[in-house]
Structure formats: structure tokens, C-alpha cells
Design a protein that fits this description.
It is an enzyme of class 4 (lyase). The N and C termini lie far apart (about 50 Å). About 35% of the residues lie in helices and about 20% in strands. It has five helices and eight strands. α3 crosses α5. The longest helix has 24 residues. An eight-stranded mixed sheet has the order 3-2-1-4-8-7-6-5, with helices on both faces. It is of the alpha+beta class and about 210 residues long. The structure holds 5-S-methyl-1-O-phosphono-5-thio-D-ribulose and zinc ion. The site of zinc ion has 6 residues, from loops.
Amino acid sequence: MDGMMDKAAFPAGAYCDAVARIIAAGQRMDRFGWVPATAGNISIRLPDGTLAITRSGGHKGLLGPQGVIRVDAAGAPLLPADRPSAETLLHCQVYAHDPAAGAVLHGHSVASTVLSMAGGNELVLEGYEVQKVFAGQDTHAARVSVPIFDNDQDIARLCRVVAPHLDAMRAGYIIRGHGVYVWGADMDVALARLEGLEFLLACELERRRMR
Ligand SMILES: CSC[C@@H](O)[C@@H](O)C(=O)COP(=O)(O)O
Ligand SMILES: [Zn+2]
């Protein structure tokens, strides 16, 4: 990690702190079963506007410091040989859209995968106390829409589909048959929102089973 800090325009501890938080986030997501196999990706925005993001292809519950690399705001690795997450552009898009975003999380839970494959372009959450974890929500009575976008292996094209909806998003979004993207001002907030959203998706799945 020391070599990475040579030209950094921020305090020496910031990158190491981000790496530690990303490793811990991966472990937490893994405990819930949200990052099976090599699924999921995790990033933090650093003070100079570059990102610390997971390397492509590793298990996100078993990350070490080498599993995290740096990319610029457009997603290009600072070390050209590094291969960042295949979905790096979705992270860059969130940071470009929301100057307050400090961390982005992507997981592949059973609930987000199954519910999004049931059809429709949104999942509506209403009546749940836990939906207050999302930005601007102060009552269970509100209606929180989580958009669902069709999966696409062309991530730049997927970004263009997601872009017009970002302003209205309160709880992140779901890619059909794939997983969720959630973010927050810092890693703690992003993790709380992910946990809240996944709890609500699990509730929805359970309710549909009961019908
Ligand atoms: C298990 S395949 C999952 C990938 O295709 C992708 O969706 C994913 O979440 C992880 O890709 P990665 O390039 O490791 O960030
Ligand atoms: Zn994915």
C-alpha cells in the first residue's frame, strides 16, 4: 500500500482507512450471503476524488489489501496493469451524480435476484418501519419505489439506462436477476441502507411466499 500513497494528494492514512473499511464491508456482506462466489463490488471515494474499489474477480468476503485498487473518477486504474471491478462505471456514475456520496455497495442477494425476476420495473416498499433508513424518509406510511433495470453486460449502456432515474432514487436500485446498488455519505451509511433494503426485500419475498 505504501507505493500507492507516493503521489497521493490526501493524508497518508486515508487510503489505508478506505481499504480497511472495504475489507470489513465485504466481510459483513458475506456474513449475510450477499456476495456469493465472486459477486459484488465495493468502493469508497477518496479525498482527491479518486476511488478505492475492489479488484475484479475476487471473493468479496475474503478481501486482503491487494484486493482493493485505485481508479480515477472516470474508472481508469491508476496503475494500468490493475483490473478494477467490471462494474466500476456504475460506481463512478453514482459519485459523479451525487457529490455527497462517499461509498457505494453492490451485492447479489437471493431476495433481490428473485424478486426482480418476477416482473415489473419497480419494487414498491410501503408500510415498513425500516424504510426510514433511506434518505428523506420519516414515516412507514411513505411509498418508496426501488427501480428495476434489465441486466446488461454492457455496463456503459446500463449506465445510460440508469442515469435519468438517479435523481428520484431514495433507496438505490436493482438490476434484474443480478443485484442491488446502494450508496451513502460514508461506508457506515451505505451499509445501513444496504442492510435496510435487503431486510425489506427479504420481507417482500416472505410475504409473497405466504400468499
Ligand atoms: C459471480 S459473477 C458476478 C459479476 O459478473 C459481477 O456482477 C459482480 O458483481 C462482480 O464483478 P467484479 O468484476 O468482481 O466486481
Ligand atoms: Zn454484480
